[in-house]
Amino acid sequence: MAEVHQDSGGSGSDFDLSQFYQIFFEEAGENLDLMEQMLLSLNLETADDEELNGIFRCAHSIKGGAATFGFSDVAELTHQMESLLDKLRRHELKPSSAMVDVLLESADASRALLACHQTGNVGQGPATVDLVGRIRSLVAGDAAGVVVPSKAVEAVVSHPSPVAVDVLPDATLSQVAATADGRRYLLIRLGKLDHLAQADAVAELFRDIPGLGEIKSVTPPDLAPDERVFEVVTTSSNEDLLDLFAFHVAREQVSISELDQTPVNAAPPQNAPVAVAAETATPIAYGFFDGAPGAPQPGAAGQPPAKHAVDAARNSATAPRTSNASAAPPEAATIRVAISKVDQLINLVGELVITQAMLAQNSRALDPAVYQQLLTGLSDLDRNTRDLQESVMSIRMIPMSIVFSRFPRMLRDLANKLGKKVDFVTQGEATELDKGLVEKITDPLTHLVRNSCDHGIEMPEDRIRAGKPETGTITLSAAHQGGSIVIEVRDDGKGMSREKILAKARERGMDVSDQLSDAEVWQLIFAPGFSTAEVVTDVSGRGVGMDVVKRNITSLNGTVEIESVEGYGMKVSVRLPLTLAIMDGMSVGVGNEVYILPLSSVVESFQVRSNAVSTVGQDSRLVKVRDEYMPVIELEKVFLVPRFDTEKTSDMMVVIEADGSRAVLLVDELLGQQQVVVKNLESNYKKVPNVSGATILGDGKVALILDTGALVRRSRH
Amino acid sequence: MNALSTVEKQNNIEAKSMAEYLTFRIGTEEYGIDILKVQEIRGYEPPTRIANAPSFVKGVINLRGTIVPIVDMRLKFNCPIVNYDSFTVVIVLNLHQRIVGIVVDSVSDVMGLDVDQIRTAPDIESIIDPESIIGLGALSDRMLILLDIEKLMSGNDMGLISDI
Known about the structure:
The complex is a heterodimer of chains A (about 725) and B (about 160).
Chain A: H1 2-9, H2 18-41, H3 49-68, H4 72-89, H5 97-119, H6 129-142, H7 151-157, H8 173-176, E1 184-190, H9 197-208, E2 213-218, E3 228-234, H10 238-245, E4 254-258, H11 274-277, H12 305-315, H13 319-327, H14 329-332, H15 339-363, H16 372-395, E5 397-399, H17 401-404, H18 407-418, E6 422-427, E7 432-434, H19 435-456, H20 460-465, E8 472-481, E9 484-491, H21 498-507, H22 518-523, H23 532-536, H24 546-555, E10 559-565, E11 569-577, E12 582-590, E13 593-598, E14 602-607, E15 613-616, E16 620-625, E17 628-634, H25 635-638, E18 652-658, E19 661-667, E20 669-677, E21 691-696, E22 702-706, H26 708-716
Parallel strand pairs in A: 6-8, 13-22, 17-19
Antiparallel strand pairs in A: 1-3, 1-4, 2-3, 5-7, 8-9, 9-11, 10-11, 12-13, 12-20, 14-18, 15-16, 16-17, 18-19, 21-22
Chain B: H1 2-17, E1 20-26, E2 29-34, E3 38-43, E4 57-63, E5 66-72, H2 73-76, E6 89-95, E7 98-104, E8 106-112, E9 118-119, E10 133-138, E11 143-147, H3 149-154
Parallel strand pairs in B: 2-11, 5-7
Antiparallel strand pairs in B: 1-2, 1-8, 3-6, 4-5, 6-7, 9-10, 10-11
């Protein structure tokens, strides 16, 4: 660890850091997400240490990484955030919503800066000067002088001098730097180092993090061979420094003491590197300089420095442990794997299941008495394969919280902009959903949640007039129901007006009657161009209409339902299959071929009676099912199935429903229902009419999955 | 100086002669394709028919979980006799991340060909688009038709890729 950081700091090193960039960007992104989440859930009155520490750690890790990789703008910004958070977690400042705001904005800015670094557009990121200034003034607000909003300081300390730290001619930094409020002169002793390189790595930190301060190696006469001593000018607190150093050296190896402004610099002018100093090695208990005339700087009023050093030393046994331990678990708990690898794994397990099924089938004829061991083995194999398949499928499943977590922030901003008060409640974040679905459901859900806030929730005064609590509530919930997941967006706003929707529909020339059920009326808003904005509110819509939401969800084999009571709010329920990769299918036989129908679109099936079928124009056939005439689609003709057995004809009818209309499929036989793994036909071939995909049957053969929507449309032409 | 350029020349030829071809038979003809495009060779198994596909697209098979279309080159090249027996072979090709299997009568050999062994094909009327013939490999007693299989399979008439 220390070596990596050390190498990375050395500008002349040919160690290639770029291979770690991607990991850093991913981690930083995660940390920013986490921080944002925690900031939003932060209760300003009762913020506890654990929460504040958590937020601090996020900022801290980003800063550390950014500094290591030389992204000084990010490091600088996160460093300021860290200073503010540090004050908060040590209760030197009281959290305020202004702080949360500025921290959120800073998180956004860091994200943008990181994105610029990632794409190589360095220098095109947002300006951070303003944010840095605001954070500083917040930090200074209650504890002036601890961190100084002084440009002069920054100008001096952030100057990235490529100092080869340990060979500089001796010149006390304190003489170079002008006295300014908050500037602290410290003597830092790193003791009992395994590698002296660790000390260099610490020195590099000062070079890499602008605004941290300046460091200079000194060689007191009592320097032990495994020790290094530095003079430091900084505005950071001891705690900050210790946290930073923790990347390279353990806390118990660091001792910090205050120096006088004109320090008793015992270093000999030649400032020989360690080798020379080693001659005089007489190990002395560290804290050597504690007794030095280290009177606190006037500006460092908020800091009892000597005490700090002692505290730091005293706590050193436990403090670093806890901070390390609490930072570690999130990293260790997950690994990052390319999705293609997981898919490959799923494919392979699918193959294994098929092979296993084949073995099971072939072994059925064996005499159990003779082949007992073999059969036991096979039944074990059966169980293990199934478990394996289940576990592998679950890899792709990710919790809904990934989607939900982006909404609180969005709602907060939106509500602020609209001047509304909205509480956001989520339920069932742990519900798991296929990753592919999660990605595709995010946009429609975002639209629904925005709609609720924009059109549903009333202005605070309207709500009070209507006798409702001033703050509206939007609830987002997810739950499993059978083989599908149901996601609901509920609000307690004003709901939809049946009359207005009907009026609007008539205005648009749609054929609607007053007899429509509520559910049918609500479905009207899914018509293309039927903007909810025009219907119920004056706020204009934003491009994506409800028709797009509906279309997106339908393309995922899902459905949308609306319930609404005027004056009391509305609820939109989105029902989705658990995964795109697996579908409930019904296999049907035509001739010698097998086709799969999505079970979700099968309404019923029955054996046909010849008198129920009538023809129109000699060709098109209709069948009467319970007083309704439906077009008949003969799969045999659609797919030109070769017939070897001329005696046999199709006599099973399956009623399918898609896009709101029904048709009847004529097939030879129903083979059964099963879960099928949906495969893409187009990855190696092209789109086949009336076919939506393919799957692999138990015997390893490929069966085509019918596109019921296309079949129904075809029958209507 | 002279010696150097001779070496260079030799290297160049060697670099080109590194090209290795998988040779296979269709009827009485012998063809060669770039070995690097070949993913694997397997026995023929009846594929799942796809309705309304060209006759030479036999259908799709399950190749360890991937759906792979199967094209019978013998039908494509208007071969008079097309048998499916235990010797019929499918060459699975990997072309630009797309996987496709071609049916041929038999696979013969892998051979490296020198540049000077490859003759340009004369202009002839043929079912094969002259654009997709690299050249003719002249061996002592036989002729090898070297195909640019990538170009051949991505041609419009193969109907393997959706028209955009």
